[in-house]
């Protein structure tokens, strides 16, 4: 008998019988591997439970910890900044006054105030490790958390498992990868990217309809698909390359989305009452958060919402106040940047709770690093990965608490230091994916651990 100790989607073998060996030996002709067998048996044997989903709000540009989750009201002005701290609905927990609606829901999320790492202080490095739980060594790209969800749990309700709204992150300073895609997993696990603004009156998702100039009738579409399948089958006898197989799977997946009535219905923002849309805010980020709820509600497993696609030439969290393309001052965050997040985030928490979705949906509000504890002479704060804060709730996460603390000036972690891999391990655990006993098919078929075993999960959150 093949004994499996099941914890989430992890697999541990103990004891092999002759029957087991014969079963494994029979996998080859079916095109299956031992890992495939473990995945199928794990799925069959796992106790019935409600699936968990995730909405990741990426606050591109990196919010300063002092002006959001970790105010320092007793420090001098050049450290505390221009804003006061306010009480939340959890006794003893205070956040910045520029997040008044978020303060009313502190019982729903946990604040982690001791995030930090000692790697490069650029946006791209921060995006890599926040999206994947890994820094990218030697050119190896790791898969986004949503791609992992897609691989482990698959699509649901004929909708893509992994969606990015409203678009991918573009220029944040360097050409390094940002951890937004499938990495080494294969292109079929890339996210479906909306590439449209749901706040616009003429909002229409890109790529869901054939181009009018090339629109074919269903019979011709079916013939073309069949012809491609025949070509793929013929090529398979000549080329066993994994990338070719991944490309084919990616093509078929993309083709199936064109004209998908389920996906078009999910993107139909006209179904939402005006008061609901107004509650989220008629901004790109606000309507993207509402759209994320609609997608989760209908079966999408992971939605990544990027608050911005760049940091240049706009008011955003990247508050260097450099007088050039990064002109945002800390004093300007209260007028536009923070209210957009505050309104949308609080609306999302309320909406998910009222619809009974919050217990099944992990909601992350992450920046890619922190901001310098002392303001610069221009009224801004510069990059500071040594210490920052994030918020995490839903999906069984224990809200209403603060985990870890920073020192008196918000410069370095003080109690319970947390690094991004620990954060990723905790998110995966909350999603029902064992971070330490789940392996992914890496380059050249080499098994890759989802998260290194020595990286602990934050048990106080689960």
Give a written overview of the molecule.
This protein is α/β, with parallel strands linked by helices and 462 residues long. It is built from 13 helices and 16 strands. The strands form 5 sheets. It has an 8-stranded mixed sheet, with helices on both faces. A hairpin with a 6-residue loop joins strand 2 and strand 3 (94-96). The chain is globular. The model is unreliable at 1-31 and 37-48 (pLDDT under 50).
In short:
With 462 residues, this protein is α/β, with parallel strands linked by helices. The protein has helices spanning 18-25, 34-45, 77-80, 100-103, 123-132, 145-153, 218-238, 242-257, 261-266, 274-280, 284-298, 333-354, 420-430; strands at 53-58, 85-87, 94-96, 109-115, 162-165, 192-193, 302-306, 361-366, 370-371, 383-384, 388-393, 401-403, 405-406, 413-415, 439-441, 447-449. The two termini are 33 Å apart.
**Mean of the pLDDT scores?**
86
Please give the alpha-carbon distance between the first and last residues.
Answer: 33 Å
Strand content: 5-15%
What is the helix fraction of residues, given as a range? 25-40%
Overall SS class: alpha/beta
What gyration radius follows from the Cα positions, in whole Å?
A: 23 Å
Number of strands: 16
Strand order of the largest sheet: 6-5-7-1-8-11-4-12
Largest sheet: 8 strands, mixed
Poorly predicted residue ranges: 1-31, 37-48
List keywords for this structure.
462 residues; alpha/beta; eight-stranded mixed beta sheet; two-stranded antiparallel sheet; 16 strands; 31% helix
Topology, please?
Blueprint: H1 18-25, H2 34-45, E1 53-58, H3 77-80, E2 85-87, E3 94-96, H4 100-103, E4 109-115, H5 123-132, H6 145-153, E5 162-165, E6 192-193, H7 218-238, H8 242-257, H9 261-266, H10 274-280, H11 284-298, E7 302-306, H12 333-354, E8 361-366, E9 370-371, E10 383-384, E11 388-393, E12 401-403, E13 405-406, E14 413-415, H13 420-430, E15 439-441, E16 447-449
Parallel strand pairs: 1-7, 1-8, 4-12, 5-6, 5-7
Antiparallel strand pairs: 2-3, 4-11, 8-11, 9-10, 13-14, 15-16
Helix pairs in contact: 5-13, 11-12
